[in-house]
Amino acid sequence: MARSSAINVVGVFADPRKSSVVSAAHRLKSILHSVDVLWAKDISQSAGFGEGVSAAELGNADIIITLGGDGTMLAAARNLAQYEVPILGVNMGRLGFLTDLSPEELGTALPAILSGEYWVEERMMLQAEANEILDETLLGLNEVTIEKGGSPRIIHLTVYVSGCLVSHIWADGIITATPTGSTAYSMAVGGAILSPQMNAFIITALAPYTLAIRPLIVSSNDVVEIHYDSSDPEKLPHLTVDGQTTLELLQEGVVIIKKSPYSARFAKYHRRSFYDVLRTKLGWGPPPSASHST
Predict the structure, then answer these.
(1) How far is CA 156 from CA 131, 151, 175, 205, 253, in A?
(2) In angstroms, rounded to a whole number, what is the distance separating the alpha carbons of residues 89 and 97?
């Protein structure tokens, strides 16, 4: 295992809505007695540790530990990307594609990690602009989704890639995902799975009203421009980032998606490959049982 710098300051970012997370925070506090710990406000107050610190102050840590599931990792990546601090995920959720440790491993793995026994994997992020409704750029790790909102009517989408017309699509919506996001919503609607080291986007329509439309993989150097038009003036389309940040769009407009200058940096203790994770989490290719061998 490659050796990184020893850790003196640890930040903790967590979803305190689960009682198991608060319990894990108390256990984590006892394990981290030899280093300085910065607790994010939500978990610090829920666990009774005090006021806690802002995201900017968490950015001063040498490493960030998240307690939660993949959703907590996504939120941490978006909030902390600009500080370039490695994020170590402890899986308190269900699937855990992005997390690296189980709660049971904290006592054995963390002392080694604090001494520098970890490595860092970078994941590309994306950004979205919807200038008609928003002055700022939205940052995401998994995907940007444009969908019809609460309307029963499909929406008209016109997709351009780096200025070139790709297609007119009538559908419930459309997803533009990173390789990391290719195992999330995009996969659920039939998109391909991309290796996380690829520099690419996958564009996947939601229930398109034609059999001809298929997921499209393009370079992350491309700019994806999606013009949308809804025929429902009352129930407007929505723009959602990572399944967590949702904005109501106008009845028609343009969303521009491109590669972000920021990357998510994940601290890894285990030497599991991406394909090990796929095989384990998705139940791929179990070996034949002895009863079926010849």
Answers:
(1) 19, 13, 14, 11, 11
(2) 10
What are the φ/ψ torsions at residue 21 (nearest 5 degrees)?
A: -70, -40
State the catalytic residues. 70
pLDDT tens for 19-36 read 899 999 999 999 999 999
139 close to 125: Cβ distance less than 8 angstroms: yes
According to CATH, what is the number of the domain 125-261? 2.60.200.30
Name the CATH architecture for the domain at 9-118+269-282: 3-Layer(aba) Sandwich (3.40)
Instruction: Give the model's confidence band at 289: pLDDT under 50 very low, under 70 low, under 90 confident, else very high.
Output: low
Alpha helices in the chain (DSSP H): 19-31, 41-47, 55-58, 70-80, 106-114, 185-188, 274-282
Token pair listed for 203 = 């564009």
**Half-sphere CA count of 193, side-chain side, radius 13 A:** 10
Token readout for 154 is 């499909």
Domain definitions of the chain by residue range: 9-118+269-282, 125-261
Helix 106-114 to helix 19-31 angle, to the nearest 10 degrees?
A: 50
Q: Which helix (H) or strand (E) holds 67?
A: strand 63-68
Percentage above 90 pLDDT, the chain:
84
Give pTM, 2 decimals: 0.92
Return the pLDDT at 291.
Answer: 56
